[in-house]
TrEMBL record:
Major localization class: membrane
Transmembrane segments: 21-45
Family classification: Belongs to the MotB family.
Lineage of origin: Bacteria, Pseudomonadati, Pseudomonadota, Gammaproteobacteria, Pseudomonadales
Region of interest called Disordered, as start-end residue ranges on this chain: 76-112, 281-321
Organism superkingdom: Bacteria
Membrane topology according to the record: Single-pass membrane protein
Compartments reported by the entry: Cell membrane
Protein name as it appears in the record: Flagellar motor protein MotB
One Pfam family this sequence matches: MotB_plug
Keyword annotations: Cell membrane, Cell projection, Cilium, Flagellum, Membrane, Transmembrane, Transmembrane helix
Gene: motB
OmpA-like domain segment(s): 159-278
Length: 340
């Protein structure tokens, strides 16, 4: 039987895939270029000197001034460029300042930081002195009775010690600069602790607002100054170096402790300030930059004070101290034949 079914031949034409484009290559090239530029900038920043960094910053702030200067390049292999001062707003590079900063070794302290460090160390020392004085008042039975009349505080000028009158316990005889025995004992006890630090002191006397009853030529100003000087004598008799007294002054009633009650006994007081170096220079009339401009050395490196020709005299007995200190009589100053 004949097979008349037609034979069908299928021809399959194979073709390659279409072209997808090369845009990704351009993006990758841009990314590689950006990364190379980034690392190149990072390398230049790490090796550039401070002068070159300032000049680069100046170029981006004012490129016109740099393009018309001696060198059109920001970094010239022949040397650093010199911008034209009259065509740019950039500040000139202070080579001396940068050179001085580079001369500082890693273990050294910059000159502008030395004074701040010295002030911080000095404040810590005054805080330790305050703690020591407070402990002495608490541990000494003789001083503990008067702890309500003794105030300690750290101020801008140093450690201030205020010894105030009480209603029935004045420091001085009424209207005079004659020290009471217990007030002398307080000053003698404080002198032994205060002299342990090299800081100088300032002593000031204060009165209340009650007018002085007596001769018209003698008033609260004279009385407050004489009382401050009497306190100075007590400290010196207790072994304190007289050369360490920077100032003795009387304020009368111009700086009241209790302004609401000008007649309050607490307004009659003696202030002893253990001065900071800065406050001491201000008292001694030294202005910043007029004298030695070098910063103060730390306390542990300060130059030792000159030794006196004769050794300091030993503290006098309490009875002899009172005889030598009470040189005031009814507000009138009596000269001490011994020059004291």
């Amino acid at each position: 039987m004949e097979n008349n079914q037609p034979i069908i031949v299928k021809r399959v034409k194979k073709t390659a895939g279409g072209h997808h484009g090369g845009a990704w290559k351009i993006a990758f090239a841009d990314f590689a270029t950006a990364m190379m530029a980034f690392f190149l900038v990072m390398w230049l920043m790490s090796v550039a000197t401070p002068e070159q960094k300032k000049l680069i910053s100046g170029y981006f702030k004012d490129p016109i001034g740099f393009s018309e200067s001696a060198s059109p390049f920001v970094i010239d292999l022949g040397g650093s460029p010199t911008p034209a001062p009259d065509r740019t707003l950039n500040q000139p590079v202070d080579d001396q300042t940068e050179g001085e900063q580079r001369e500082i070794e890693p273990g050294q302290v910059a000159p502008d930081q030395a004074e701040g460090i010295a002030e911080e160390v000095e404040r810590e020392r005054l805080e330790l002195l305050l703690q020591e004085l407070q402990n002495k008042v608490e541990e000494n039975p003789q001083l503990q009775r008067f702890k309500d009349q003794i105030l300690f505080e750290i101020t801008q000028d140093g450690l201030r010690i205020q010894i105030m009158d009480a209603e029935n316990r004045p420091m001085f005889a009424s209207g005079s600069a004659r020290l009471q025995p217990y007030f002398e004992d307080i000053l003698l006890a404080l002198a032994d602790t205060i002299k342990a630090v090299p800081n100088k002191i300032s002593i000031s006397g204060h009165t209340d607002a009650k007018p002085f009853a007596g001769d018209g030529e003698y008033g609260n100003w004279e009385l407050s100054a004489n009382r401050a000087n009497a306190a100075r004598r007590a400290l010196i008799a207790g072994g304190y170096d007289e050369a360490q007294v920077a100032r003795v002054v009387g304020y009368a009633s111009s700086a009241l402790f209790d302004r609401d009650d000008p007649l309050n006994p607490v307004n009659r007081r003696i202030d002893i300030v253990v001065l900071t170096k800065k406050a001491q220079r201000a008292i001694e009339g030294e202005q910043d930059g007029s004298g030695d401009s070098s910063p103060a050395a730390p306390p542990d490196q300060a130059a030792p004070t000159a030794s006196p020709v004769e050794p300091a005299a030993a503290p006098l007995p309490s009875t002899e101290v009172r005889e030598r200190l009470n040189i005031f009589d009814q507000g009138q100053l009596l000269l001490d034949p011994a020059g004291e």
